[in-house]
Here is the input.
Amino acid sequence: MENKFKKVIVYFVISCVMFFSFGNSSFAYAADINAADSQIETTPLVSTEWLAEHAEDKNLVILEVRSGETSIKFQDEHIPNSVFASSIYFQTNYPDKTNIPYDLPSYEEFESLVSKLGISNDSKVVIVYPGLIPKDIMCATRTYWTFDYFGMSNISILDGGFGKWKREGRPLSNQIKVPDLGNFRVSTVKSEDLANLLDVILAVNTKDHVLLDARMSSDYVGSTKQSFIPEAGHISGSINYFAPLFLNPDLTFKTPKQITYEMALLGITKDKSIITYCNSGQFATTAWFGLKKIAGMQNVSSYDGSASEWVNKLNLPLVKD
Here is the structure.
């Protein structure tokens, strides 16, 4: 009971920070993003102001990643000169993993997919998510994480996404861009971005590792579950922090200071090795992005197989609280 009470207090504090402190600090962070005019390759986020000023830059590819109804609406309105990609475009369902959806593609598949979007090794890519509801963010972070894994460093996410761009009255287009064929080649793979099943098994209940469950609290406690996961609950010893909590109410990302503070409330600090997971490796990348790319926690990896692999591959247990 005491532990549950502490969790309630932590989430109350986080909620207060989310709604009352984002104003001044978020605008300050946006100013930092705007200042990085020539540093897109090292800046995980760019602002709408930055994109408006640099939309005609040579080698810039504006990649709008959408799913569901937002995919259909792309043809009616999108950022001018942007290229469309489905949210599952960079993911593969292997025949021998029928209950483990949305795996990373092979590097050969990735090279082909990316090149068809007009992307080459010297391209600067800005990933745009719909920015209409909190869960939209996983479209962008999953794409960013995949690009980062395959060694592409000059990538950024548009902070606030298409929704923020549109709310600000910026230009829209209904002209579909057909990109020229790119020539992207994988030169290195960042294996440190990816956690596998063995990594998670070894990390369970060890003092120097943290397993962060990025799912909604009902999935974590086991009162709900996804259809492709036969068992409800969470991996033993994991800490729950729902991925959309990395966002402000306007669906921009919180500042490094905010994220670091909220993680400290949960006992997650920069000296820990952190593995993020969810149901199928989507929200896990949002947590990975927030911790590693914004808060600067270096030892962070995302478990691609997540709960679906944990249960379906070796029938490993989940626990409920």
